[in-house]
Fold this protein.
Amino acid sequence: MTSTVVENKSFSLKLFTSVFIVFWLLIAAFPFFWTFWGSFKVELDFFSKENWMNAITGIRTFREHGEHFTGAGYEGAWIQEDFWKAVINTALVCLFVVCTSLTIGTLGAYALSRSGFRYAFWLLILALVFRAMPPITLVAGYLLPFFEWGLWGKLSTTVVVLVAINQPFTLWMLHSFFQKIPKELDESAMVDGCTNFQAFRYVILPVMWPGVITTGLFSFLLAYNDFAVTAMLLSKENQTMVPKIASFLGTTQTEGNVMFAVAAVVSAIVPLFFLVMFFQRQIVSGLTAGAVKG
Amino acid sequence: MLLFIFLPIISVVTQSLHIDHEQVFVEVENCDFFGCKKAMAVDTEATEQLRAEQPLGRFVGLDNYFNRSHLASSEIATAWKNSDSFGEFYDQVYNLPLYRAIIFTLVYTFTVTPLLIILGFLIAIGVNSLHRHLKGFVIFFSLLPMIVTPLVGSLILFWMIDSRGIIGSSLQHLFNDPNLSLKASTSLTWITLMVYGVWHSAPFAFVIFYAGLQTLPQDTLESAMIDGASRWERIRYVVIPHLMPLVTFVALIQLMDNFRVFEPIVGFNASAHATSLSSIIFSDLGGESRLLSSASTTSVLTILGVIVLLSPVLYRTWRDWERKV
């Protein structure tokens, strides 16, 4: 830019902005670091009545374990309480939800975006209504038939339900990505002798990757974060991470076992932490895609 | 998709019209040394059989909707007749579970949404003036509260505000009251839940507004500066009007999200002080007895609420669409 009007910010304004941002960072990030740090302590340090410095220095941890850090919480959660099973279940559920909803989503959204206008409108309405409806209202409807048919408590059932709840949103998001791809692209592919499916597979999909990845991220987050559906539809042996953590709270309020839950919570956050780190750009673009579209 | 979206809704509606079978009573004669007595006893076998034959239960029509744990029409009517002031009426209504949930859900929705929009806007303005290299870093940490699983996020805060946790004990220190506990009183629990709500959703508003700030027309800003607009005036007359459509968008999304507030109540273990519509469905379903019909009734009412809440938006989308076609 050649003609920039010089912005001369006053010192006090600069100071105020920086202080505000630092303050926000503290609010946003501090709880995570605090819990991460505390998860390596014993309960009496993490919940210290006498002095909050204990949680940082770990005096009692040292007294009990001979070290300032202890993996006892993790050991208890992962081995004693079988948290590893829940982790595997979560991985399975997320993998299948993402794969299924992307397969249905890309094919369906492609078809919708190449057809008339009316579909798109109803799709948007559906996506909106489902965004607004608490998933738990539907769960009440699933329960009875699932009991009757003996489908309750299985991982596969949960996957299907999660996919179904998520599908309108996935379709809408992919649809808006497909709309950006000019129709001429697949027309020219067809002129060159591609069948309809080949045009989709070799021409459209490669262009679509960023959109597919963003949508996949969001359906992953939905499956990973869901509590209402998984807590109600899974039997105790098949629980995923989030309901497992909730059940820790109910059963292990006794002394010492709170740290199991703390350790489990930290274990559940770590994957998300890396997810945000690597896919920050996609998450931001996915969030704003909806907004720009209106 | 049709199968999994419309069938459950139909199933919910049907279930809401039924209630559990009453237990089947049989008359049994207990004869002992002193003579025979006739007594009523529960015939477990017959009850089980009846339940197996008709798992839906008895058909009761709309009774479920008007009983005490839902719309409670008769209770409301008596309360209205018997109470002298509005406050008294409110107290009585507040004791009915469904109305308590509705009140909390509405208060939560309409307090949290404006607050998080303001906070998100301030952060976006602040971050926008930062140096380029710092921005990515700040955005990364700002996203965390939003991405993290709601239940997990609320648990983290719950442990921190515990009277032995860091925030809880600092507050005790600050107010010099060793018995202060954020979990004990209803109003403090509400405030905590709302603070959590703002913390959780402000990043969303921030990201959207930040993206909006990138598309700010520089020419308009410059001409405003040349015309002598102060920094505040530029924000007020250029930036805010530019972001206005986004504000509507964020408000809409957040209204919907906050309306289904649920996980924090479980995480904060706050169901004694605050219940939302979703959480009463959950506790109905999760209890020993699985009150399916009661849960379904609340579900239907919630869905109706969502539709009422959404109807202006739906109407507007429809109108815009008509114009486009």
Observations:
- Chain B has one domain: 86-324.
- Chain B touches chain A through 93 residues (CB under 8 Å).
- The mean pLDDT of chain B is 73.
- The two ends of chain B are 27 Å apart (CA to CA).
